[in-house]
Write a structure and sequence with these properties.
The complex is a heterodimer of chains A (about 850) and B (about 325). Chain A has 25 helices and four strands. With about 850 residues, chain A is an all-alpha fold. In chain A, α20 runs parallel beside α25. Helix content of chain A is about 65%, strand content about 5%. Chain A has a two-stranded antiparallel ribbon with strand order 1-2. Chain B is of the alpha+beta class and about 325 residues long. Chain B has eight helices and ten strands. A five-stranded mixed beta sheet of chain B has the order 3-2-1-5-8. A three-stranded mixed beta sheet of chain B has the order 4-10-9, covered by helices on one side. A two-stranded antiparallel sheet of chain B has the order 6-7. The longest helix of chain B has about 35 residues. The two termini of chain B are about 40 Å apart. Classes of the chains: A mainly alpha (about 850), B alpha+beta (about 325). Chains A and B meet through α3, α9, α10, α11 and α12 of A and α2 and α4 of B.
């Protein structure tokens, strides 16, 4: 292969890169946005939540060690298991996965950073502040106590007065924000910032899993976002989505929650499996056996996981036919997991030398055992009659701890030992590592293996105590002892971490002799030059690569625009397309995150005025940050390799911001589909409250038609402006009038829709039909609000001379979301106004 | 299933008291027996596969050159990860469907007795509806005739609960706005314990009950007695009854045949004859009544009956004695 930059590089380029990518020092560290810095913060905080929620588990196990124990009282225990589950799922597992993605994905792709560094920083800080406040509620008796699944009606105001349940909704709100932001980053990162030559078929498995992870978030999280919105609205304003007496249904929550909740398990597990698929080949010194099969299996798992949610609801009395379908689907998902397990075993066997036993390998082998066992008990509970017995018992507690600790925590520990040299000057101790592994492995099994029997012997979950004479004492005592052993293992790990972890680059470049790009020579700017990739294990197939990269013989060995930059490549074949100029450190994302967190927190404790001020400040800082984006084409073309010149600016469907908007639109569309599902679901449950018989008839057709006409007019205006942006943007007046007109059409359409329903006398809190109709308006209003800000922002950009026919990303984003909103609202008008007429 | 019995016997060793009364491994009902068989089958199936995977992994790690080479290709991935699971799971699934089929339809044909159970925070409202449509109110305990399938109609008055008697059958949720039907068929006379299996807030841990299976003839005479009013009080219980009626107890509780007509709390007409108090939280004796009335919030925190600290010790004893003789 001919090197992209064969000639010796001029002096000073590395210093220039170091200057541009320097991490801010001192208290300015919070303004850092580079993926390695904030990724580490992200993982560190997620791990802190793991420790704190783990501590709660130790206290709970102590309480359950003996029957009739009164160490912890009932109310505190109920808060503890709620916070334990919520924290482990939402504040530890999902963020830890995203943190690994933020830290490792750009390194594996030899990208200098993720495409939206400030978005990552914003999401992470909102999570840190919000998560810590959520967790601290356990210390002052304000923690939620409805279980991590928060089933209504138990969590409605009537049965859960006080702010406790609202804190749960708040905590989830943050994780929703950071998960969606992370999904945008990761989809665009994995598809558009791969190094030249790394086609999809050469992408590391971990990148595949992160891509699937992010896609699953796009479709799964909106269901829980809608559910939490509905629950909060019902708690605050009494719109009866879940109240059976008024036409609502508690089961709607369960459908939405588990439509998210089951994929959530795979959202956590798939990236962990991806980590394992990266580590095993290194330890076996041979490429992964069955790469293609694994990719197909991963996609299959992601797909199937959306068809399993009802297996959390086998005992709710749903019809036998659905039971059969979901039972079969739940078993089918075992197949792709089986493919992965056997691929790993085959890879271990395939190495010419024996599999190296390091601490990371031990954790991987432990994972194989535990995950297989958890998978098998998963097959057992997929059998409907068996589930009738063990559902909501300690058998299920054992099952999902096997799957989640085995399937995620063990690979996480393996990953920490394995990738530590990338982030720390010293590696962790392999000698203490043996202790860590065996204590955790033995402790884990002693804790959770007996629980299978405890459950079959009849002990339900979520009980704070049990009568001493039930025959559960001995089993529980064994489990508790196991918990202490497990905790001791974690403690040894912390000691080792404290002794060895020192931020910086490792003692050796590639201590394990791995084949993938994250082990190239690294510094704050990632690799000196971005390699041309021709195989799946570039470091094995081209031993000279690290030196070539270090000497700047590959792509973009310098910083020609003087900004932080990375190469954007085509999504499938990874052909270089343009160079992104990325923002560096700054206060706005940090401050916007803090004020966003403050907004939600203060709203939860009903301090509305200060909350509003914080909300406005949060938006203001987001706008300040957005103002600095869209740099325009002023830097022209730059040379990234000998004879390869790329533009430094791109708008339209090739640009990364267009892709991000498309991802966001998928999220919005999933949210809306969840709404349509909920509407039809409640109609099936309670047709008697639906218009036209059970509620006021919908407003006359002229109202929705007027609304639709305005929407189409607005869309038409923006389409015209978009086609002739040069002509419009040449005149301040024409552009401003056009943008304002589009906003007037939009708000007019919304006002007509709302006014029409108000005029019929329909109220949102009377019955489920009214609640659903007005919820449609709420979803409409959200988009209108976002578009008002974006439209005015675009106008300001134009007036400031920062928006024209070429520099048009701000306009394109606005127009894209606008057209989407029109499409969604037309569908909504059809549903809200057409459906009652259809059935009436 | 001799094997199943063997395992059940082994697992029951070393237990006393009410140990095992709530164990799915010691079935005394038709559905629980069917599921029990399935359970042991699943345990064997899973154990065999786990051992198999461990063995193959051990070969991959420690095996000789030739052995390792044999499992190093994509063949094992397709065989072990695709073909085998599809075959094994299809067989398992068909067996599961076969097992699911009978339980549901069997009972309906028998007609006759029906029991409505309503989950309340944190107790069970039980209503027997006999062949003639007569409704007999009770609470926190269910009696069944051995051998006869009985249909239970389950719903909830407030939050979601779940009805579960492991020795008789699997669980079924009680959801506001829904009525779920569960069929219980006891195969042995005796006491079984049940417990709410869906977290329902506060003292969820103390929402249990007993199901007592009785031979058919004993059951019908018991039901006849349960249908009747409370027996007339003897002279020495009159003071207790007067306290019950005058202290506000009757606002929530009903004792048929007296002026106590409350329906918020459990029906107490025959409370003295039940196996337990406060939804299987306490034994049923005079001392337990005293504790419950005065210290209910300690015994079962957050339960919806306010603590009655207005009574003197003497009054408490009178009240308890009255309740105890409501048999």
């Amino acid at each position: 292969m001919e090197l992209p930059n064969p000639d010796p590089r001029p002096e000073g380029e590395v210093r220039e890169l170091e200057r541009i990518w320097a991490t801010p020092r001192g208290w300015r560290l919070v303004t850092a946005v580079n993926n390695t810095v904030i990724g580490l913060l992200y993982l560190g905080v997620a791990f802190l939540f793991f420790l704190m929620a783990g501590l709660l588990a130790v206290v709970m196990r102590t309480q359950l060690a003996l029957g009739d124990n009164r160490l912890v009282d009932q109310d505190l225990y109920n808060q503890m298991f709620t916070v334990h589950g919520t924290t482990m799922m939402f504040l530890f597992a999902v963020p830890a996965v995203e943190a690994l993605g933020v830290m490792l994905l750009p390194q594996m792709l030899a990208a200098r950073d993720l495409p939206f560094p400030r978005l990552s920083a914003f999401a992470i800080w909102a999570y840190v502040v919000g998560g810590l406040v959520f967790f601290s509620t356990i210390f002052y008796d304000l923690a939620p106590k409805g279980g991590w699944f928060m089933y209504p009606p138990l969590t409605l105001m009537e049965y859960s007065p006080g702010d406790n349940a609202d804190f749960w909704l708040l905590g989830i709100g943050f994780i929703e924000i950071s998960a969606i932001a992370g999904a945008v980053e990761i989809v665009v990162g994995a598809l558009r910032t791969r190094p030249p030559g790394m086609s999809l078929a050469k992408m590391p498995i971990f990148a595949w899993t992160m891509l699937i992870f992010a896609s699953m978030i796009m479709f799964a999280f909106p269901a829980v976002i809608l559910a939490t919105m509905m629950l909060e609205i019902e708690r605050a304003f009494g719109w009866p989505f879940f109240t059976a007496a008024l036409g609502g249904d508690p089961l709607l929550w369960q459908h939405l929650f588990w439509f998210f909740g089951h994929p959530e398990v795979y959202i956590i597990f798939l990236p962990a499996a991806g980590l394992v698929s990266m580590m095993i080949p290194t330890m076996a010194r041979t490429p992964l056996v069955g790469y293609h099969l694994i990719v197909v299996a991963l996609i299959g798992t992601g797909f199937f996981s959306f068809g399993l949610w009802v297996h959390h609801m086998f005992t709710t009395g749903i019809p036998a036919l659905s039971l059969a379908f979901f039972s079969a689907a739940s078993m089918a998902v075992a197949v792709p997991s089986g493919i992965q397990v056997f691929s790993w075993i085959a890879t271990i066997a395939a190495g010419r030398e024996r599999f190296r036993i390091t601490t990371a390998s031990l954790f991987i082998l432990g994972f194989l055992f535990i995950f297989t066992l958890g998978g098998l008990t998963g097959v057992m509970v997929a059998m409907v009659p068996f589930d009738y017995q063990v559902h909501d018992t300690y058998f299920v507690v054992a099952h999902f701890h096997y799957v989640l600790i085995g399937g995620f925590v063990f690979p996480l520990f393996a990953a920490i030992y394995y990738w530590m040299p990338l982030f720390s000057r010293r590696m962790l101790s392999e000698r203490l590592g043996r202790w860590v592994f065996w204590l955790i492995f033995i402790g884990f099994n002693v804790t959770f293996l007996p629980m299978h029997l405890t459950g079959l012997r009849g002990m339900p979950r979520r009980v704070w105590t049990y009568p001493g004479e039930m025959g559960w004492d001995t089993l529980n005592l064994i489990s508790t002892v196991g918990t202490y052993v497990l905790a001791a293992g974690v403690l040894v790990f912390l000691v080792d971490l404290a002794a060895k972890f020192r931020l910086g680059n490792g003692p050796q470049e590639n201590p394990w002799g791995a084949g993938t790009l994250e082990w190239l020579p690294n510094d704050v700017y990632s690799t000196r030059s971005i390699p041309h990739v021709t195989s799946r294990e570039p470091l094995w197939d081209r031993p000279s690569l690290p030196q070539e990269v270090r000497d700047g013989h590959h792509y973009l060995p310098n910083a020609p625009t003087g900004w932080r930059e990375t190469i954007v490549t085509s999504p499938i074949h990874a052909r270089p397309q343009y160079v992104i100029q990325m923002p560096g450190p700054g206060w706005p994302p940090f401050l916007a995150a803090v004020f966003t967190a403050a907004f939600f927190l203060l709203l939860t404790v009903k301090m509305v005025t200060i909350a509003t001020i914080c909300g406005v400040l949060a938006i203001a800082f987001i706008l300040v940050w957005a103002w600095g984006l869209d740099p325009g084409p002023s830097k022209g073309m730059i040379e990234i390799a000998k004879g390869v010149r790329l533009p430094t600016y791109m708008s339209g469907p090739t640009s990364h911001s267009w892709w991000a908007m498309v991802v966001l639109m998928f999220v919005a569309a999933s949210l809306y589909l969840a709404y349509v599902f909920s509407y039809l679901f409640l109609w099936v449950v309670s047709p008697e409250v639906w218009a036209p018989t059970g509620s006021p008839e919908p407003p006359p057709v002229s109202w929705p038609l007027g609304s639709a006409a305005l929407l189409l007019a607005g869309s038409g205006i923006l389409w015209l402006v978009g086609r002739r942006l040069g002509m419009f943007s040449a005149s301040r007046a024409a552009m401003s009038v056009a943008l304002l007109l589009s906003l007037v059409c939009l708000t007019g359409a919304f006002a007509l829709e709302l006014r029409g329903h108000l005029a019929t006398g329909l109220s949102p809190d009377g019955n489920a039909y009214g609640a659903m109709v007005y919820l449609g308006a709420v979803l409409f209003a959200q988009l209108v609000f976002a578009l008002l800000i974006m439209g005015l922002f675009a106008m300001a950009r134009h007036l400031a001379g920062k928006l024209d026919a070429v520099r048009r990303v701000t306009y394109d984003s606005y127009a894209l979301l606008y057209h989407y909103t029109v499409a969604q609202s037309l569908l909504g008008l059809g549903l809200i106004h057409g459906f009652p007429r259809l059935i009436g | 299933m001799r094997l199943a019995r063997y395992f059940a016997a082994v697992s029951a060793l070393g237990l006393q008291g009410c140990a095992g009364l709530q164990s799915a491994l010691d079935p005394s009902g038709a559905e629980a027996e069917r599921i029990g068989t399935l359970s042991w089958l699943l345990v064997l199936f899973s154990t065999a596969i786990l051992v198999g995977v461990c063995l193959i992994t051990a070969v991959a790690l420690f095996g000789g050159e030739r052995w390792r080479a044999r499992i190093a290709g994509e063949r094992i991935v397709i065989g072990g990860g695709l073909v085998f699971p599809i075959l094994a799971l299809s067989i398992l699934l068909s067996y599961g469907f076969y097992l699911m089929a009978p339980g549901a339809t069997e009972a309906r044909s028998q007609g006759g007795l029906r029991i409505e159970v309503v989950g309340e925070r944190w107790w069970w409202r039980v209503t027997y509806v006999d062949e003639t449509g007569r409704r007999i109110e009770s609470a926190n305990e269910i009696r069944l005739p051995v051998g006869r399938p009985v249909e239970l109609e389950l719903t909830s008055a407030d939050v979601i609960h779940s009805f579960w008697v492991p020795r008789l059958a699997g669980k079924l949720d009680m959801i506001p706005g829904h009525t779920n039907t569960l069929t219980l068929q006891a195969t042995k006379a005796g006491i079984n314990r049940g417990q709410c299996a869906e977290y329902c807030g506060g003292p969820h841990a103390f929402m249990s009950f007993y199901v007592i299976a009785m031979p058919e003839d004993q059951f019908s005479s018991w039901l006849a007695g349960e249908a009747g009013d409370a027996s007339a009080v003897k002279q020495d219980q009159a003071a207790g009854q007067a306290l019950f009626l005058s202290s506000g107890c009757s606002a929530c509780h009903r004792v048929r045949g007296t002026d106590a007509r409350g329906t918020i709390g459990p029906d107490l007409t025959h409370v003295g004859s039940r196996h337990s108090l406060a939804a299987a939280t306490l034994e049923n004796d005079v001392a337990a009544f005293v504790r419950w009335i005065r210290d209910g919030q300690h015994v079962k925190p957050e339960n919806l009956m306010p603590p009655y600290e207005i009574f003197t010790d003497g009054e408490l004893r009178q009240l308890a004695a009255y309740l105890d003789q409501l048999r």
